[in-house]
Amino acid sequence: MWCHSCREEYDEEDAGTCKECYEEASETEEELKREIEDLKAKVAFLRLSSPLDPHLPHTSSASADLLLHAASDSQEASASSPAISRSPVFKAMLENEMAESRSGMIKIFDVSYDVLRSFIHYLYTADVLLDEQMACNLLILAEKYQVKHLKAFCEKFMTSKVNNENAIASFAFAHQHNAKQLIEASLSLIMDNMATLTQREEYKELLEKDPRLVVHIYETYLARQVNTAAKKLTFK
C-alpha cells in the first residue's frame, strides 16, 4: 500500500510502506477487526432463544405472541416469545409459567410506547436507530431486563456523544447504571475542564444530589496531578 509521495519517489516494485501508509493500514485493519467482532456479537445475540431453543417450554403460552404494555401511555406492542426470550428476565417469566406467561401480557412501567417499540425492535434485529434520549431510555430498559448486548450498544453510542456540555450529566448517569466505558469517557473530559467545573449548573446540582460523586471526581483529579508530578520528577 503506497501513498502518492511513495509512488513518486519509488518505482512500485521497489517501494516500501511509508510511516503514514503503515499507520493508515493499521487503523483500517483495527476498524475491520472491530466491525467483525461487532457482527459476531450480533449473531450470538440473535441466536439466543431461537424458535428451536429446546429450553423454552412447549406450551401454548410460550409459542403464542405476547403483548407488552407500556404503562406510562397505555399502549401495547406484540412480540414473539423467541424474541422476548433474548431477555433473561422475560425468558424466566415464560419458563416458570408466571402470571405474565399465562395471561400473555407483560406490563412495563415508566416507559413510553416509542421506547418500548424500539426495545422490541432491537430484540428482533440487534439494531436500532438512536438519538441521545433514546439511548438513555433503552440503556435503562436493557439494564432492567438484562439485555447486555443492548446496554453495551447504547453505552457505546452515548460514549461517542460525550462533550464538555454533557460530561457531568453523563458521568452521573453512567454511575447510576454501572456503565464503565461511559464513566471513563465522561470523567476524562471532566478532568480536562476542572478549572471551569465549579461554575457549571450541573456541578452544583450534582453536589446537592450526590456529593459522593463530586468527591470521586476530585480524588481522581488529585491522583492525576500526583502522577503527572511524579513523571516530571522521573525525567529530571
From TrEMBL:
Per the UniProt entry, the signal peptide is none
PANTHER family noted in UniProt? SPECKLE-TYPE POZ PROTEIN
What metabolic or biological pathway is this protein involved in? Protein modification; protein ubiquitination
* Start and end residues of each BTB domain: 64-132
Q: What organism is listed for this UniProt entry?
A: Apostasia shenzhenica
Name by which UniProt lists this protein = BTB/POZ domain-containing protein
* One Pfam family hit: BTB
Swiss-Prot/TrEMBL keywords: Coiled coil
Q: Which InterPro entries match?
A: BTB/POZ_dom (IPR000210), SKP1/BTB/POZ_sf (IPR011333)
Sections of the chain in a coiled coil: 18-49
Per the record's keyword annotation, is Coiled coil included, yes or no? yes
Is Coiled coil included in the keywords of this UniProt record? yes
